[in-house]
Amino acid sequence: MLNKIISKAPGRVCLFGDHQDYLGLPIIATTINKEITIEANKNSTEEFKIFKKDLNIYDSIDLKQDIRSDEKDFLRIALRVLKKYNCIPNHGYDIEIKSEIPINSGLSSSSALIVAWVNFLLTSFSDRSISSELLAELSYEIEVLEMGGSGGKMDQYTIANGKTIFLDTRTNEINSFDHGLCDMIIGVSNKPKDTQGLLRKLKENAQKSIDIVKDKVPTFNLYDKENINKRSYLDILDDDLKPYFKAAVGNFRVTEDAKKEFSKLKLDIKEISNLMNTHHNYLKNELKITTPEIDKMIDVSKENGAIGSKIVGSGGGGSVVCLSTDADTSNKIVSELRRVGVKDAFIAKRGGGPTIHYE
């Protein structure tokens, strides 16, 4: 019986594959050295007494009560899901949750919290062997399957595995890369991202465009790169659906090209940056998920020496990530982003995975 537990999980940055994972297409993402922390101290009750420090919100979960089927709070949903795996809390904790990850900014603070929460619950109330695969699968089940989210697997699998990964979202096969990357300057916009609404719209239109092409060309296979390269299928589609198909195919190619670069012994950061810029152009010009503030942040980063920049998150707000190989340039970009009034700007390094400490 553990008296004190500290569970941490990192934020993540999508490098390649935004709006791809829900189509079953691959992604490349990395964790960053900003974490969410759950500190739990055993109490003498049968309650989780929770303080969400960054939001200044107190909550309490009575462990004797069943979780309703229409529950929307994922901390409670996690308890219902984990019960199926014989993880059943039988004593209370005083719990403080705090985050270094900017909230609702496209850096997966919610997924980091779910991974850290699942790790805390399994460590405290289960004798199961805890692996990155188990943390990813359970966190995905909670956040997407149980909560009915429109997203894919990128966030949970990246955070649970740590470092930089290529994820085949159809098979869950993961390739990990041990490159140190370079400075990642994160700029957080003043407008929160519109996760579910925008994701739902983009997912529906992208899938509709793919289904129409499949119906007209039965041999079409989205995952066959050679097939896609043989001809253009845009003439099959109405003008309003062409951008979604073009972005799906184009970003798939970019992600596969980036995988080849990451698979090399020596990472060519300039080539990675060129591919990142191409990826952003699809997101901006075809999917149109940027905002005037995001566009300004990208322009400022490039004007001050960033070699690669893109929007991060579902869009309609959120953050940007900018690559820099020079410390002075990195600091200059941060200063200029702050000067133009962004909500936050900081230099991030590649992070690790979830951690757990207990007494």
TL;DR?
This protein is an alpha+beta fold. Helices cover 40% and strands 23% of the residues.
Write up this protein.
The strands form 2 sheets. Strands 1, 2, 3, 4, 5, 6, 7 and 12 form an 8-stranded mixed sheet that branches. Strands 9-10-8-11 form a 4-stranded antiparallel sheet. The chain starts with a strand and ends with a strand. It has 2 domains: 4-178 and 352-358, Ribosomal Protein S5, domain 2 (2-Layer Sandwich), CATH 3.30.230; 184-348, GHMP kinase, C-terminal domain (Alpha-Beta Plaits, 2-Layer Sandwich), CATH 3.30.70.890. The chain has 359 residues and is an alpha+beta fold. Helix 1 (74-83) runs parallel beside helix 2 (109-125). The mean pLDDT is 92. The longest helix is centred in the middle third of the chain and has 22 residues, at 195-216. The chain has helices at 74-83, 109-125, 132-146, 154-161, 195-216, 225-230, 242-262, 269-286, 292-303, 327-339; strands spanning 4-16, 27-42, 47-52, 57-62, 93-99, 164-168, 173-177, 183-188, 308-312, 319-324, 344-348, 355-358. A hairpin with a 4-residue loop joins strand 6 (164-168) and strand 7.
Topology (elements, then pairings):
Blueprint lengths: L3 E13 L10 E16 L4 E6 L4 E6 L11 H10 L9 E7 L9 H17 L6 H15 L7 H8 L2 E5 L4 E5 L5 E6 L6 H22 L8 H6 L11 H21 L6 H18 L5 H12 L4 E5 L6 E6 L2 H13 L4 E5 L6 E4 L1
Parallel strand pairs: 3-5
Antiparallel strand pairs: 1-2, 1-12, 2-5, 2-6, 3-4, 6-7, 8-10, 8-11, 9-10
